[in-house]
Specification:
The structure is a single chain. The protein has one domain. The chain has a two-stranded parallel ribbon with strand order 1-2. 38% of the residues lie in helices and 11% in strands. It has helices at residues 23-31, 51-54, 57-78, and strands at 12-16, 34-38.
Length: 93
């Protein structure tokens, strides 16, 4: 998917959750000249994101914005009642 959006010489960034913190995904991104802004998975194993990516201010900003967006979806599920749909059927919802 990242190959499709690759245009020009600017370096792209790709923000993902910590399930994408694998060596295969990070190396594939780097080969395509894409900076992976992946949340570090430090709970189960060693993270594939190294210090050169984490030390940039763009990575910090990306993770901050990502947290804000996830808070909105979390609120939508718990408070706004998105977990239980109102109607039966995909088309009506």
């Amino acid at each position: 998917m990242l190959r499709r959006y690759r245009s020009g010489q600017r370096r792209l960034t790709g923000g993902r959750d910590k399930d994408f913190d694998t060596r295969d995904f990070v190396t594939a991104c780097r080969e395509l000249n894409v900076t992976p802004h992946v949340a570090q998975n430090q709970s189960r194993r060693r993270s594939a994101i190294d210090c050169r990516t984490v030390s940039h201010l763009g990575y910090l900003a990306s993770q901050t914005v990502r947290k804000r967006v996830e808070e909105i979806f979390g609120w939508w599920r718990t408070v706004a009642g998105s977990r239980k749909l109102r109607y039966v059927g995909l088309k009506r919802n």
